[in-house]
Design goal:
CATH architecture of the largest domain: 3-Layer(bab) Sandwich
Keywords: Antioxidant, Manganese, Metal-binding, Oxidoreductase
Oligomer: single chain
CATH topology of the largest domain: minor pseudopilin epsh fold
CATH superfamily of the largest domain: Iron/manganese superoxide dismutase, C-terminal domain
GO molecular function: manganese ion binding; superoxide dismutase activity
Bound molecules: fe (ii) ion
Organism: Boletus reticuloceps
EC number: 1.15.1.1
Enzyme class: oxidoreductase
Order of helices and strands: HHHHEEEHHH
Number of strands: 3
Number of domains: 2
Number of helices: 7
């Protein structure tokens, strides 16, 4: 089946990630940017299904890659985030990496959580133009690595555990051109429970 992708709801309200990511960024990012990728992916898939020649199909591949990647990456990104615990979100766990298999693996592969964040932020800040930074599991070597992808390319070689969008639309309204400042703050709202779930599925061989 083609062309039937729909916009998933955010699992929290637009302003739930404040003060680290303001509600207006979340509203535009989810309601406009992600929706645009989905609409364009559906259109491209519908055209692909109607295409009758290889040339027509080849002409559609970059649109499918770009918008399909945008849909996959943003769907994962919303789940990667969760409110930091505060007076409103008393039981929320944003930014908290509890003891467990993922914390152990991060210590094993990076030394400490702080060392991992340092490597992630410096690597991801340096992405030229738009792209994504990932904490990802390498199924060949069985270790966690920091990887980046350009544009809206999804991670294909690794299993994504945590992904961070560093397109300017993800931070510009609040952080302006300071990508590094956005990356410093975002760890306050990272959903490590979701990351650990993905890590456990990855090491057990599930397809993510
Ligand atoms: Fe984005």
């Amino acid at each position: 089946m083609s062309g039937t992708h729909t916009l998933p709801n955010l699992p929290y309200s637009n302003n739930a990630l404040e003060p680290y990511i303001i509600g207006e960024i979340m509203r535009l990012h989810h309601d406009k940017h992600h929706k645009t990728y989905i609409d364009a992916l559906n259109a491209a898939e519908n055209n692909y299904a109607r295409a009758t020649t290889p040339k027509e199909r080849i002409a559609l591949q970059s649109a499918i890659r770009f918008n399909g990647g945008g849909h996959i990456n943003h769907s994962l990104f919303w789940k990667n985030l969760t409110p930091a615990p505060d007076g409103t979100h008393v039981k929320s766990n944003g930014g908290i990496l509890k003891d467990g298999p993922l914390k152990d693996a991060i210590k094993r592969d990076f030394g400490s959580l702080e060392d991992f964040i340092k490597e992630f932020n410096s690597t991801t800040t340096a992405i030229q133009g738009s792209g994504w930074g990932w904490l990802a599991w390498n199924p060949k070597t069985k270790v966690l690595e920091v990887v980046t992808t350009p544009n809206q390319d999804p991670v294909l070689t690794h299993v994504p555990i945590i992904g961070v969008d560093v397109w300017e639309h993800a931070y510009y309204l609040q952080y302006f051109n300071a990508r590094a400042a956005y990356l410093e703050k975002i760890w306050n709202v990272i959903n490590w429970e979701e990351g650990e779930k993905r890590y456990n599925e990855a090491v057990s061989g599930s397809k993510l």
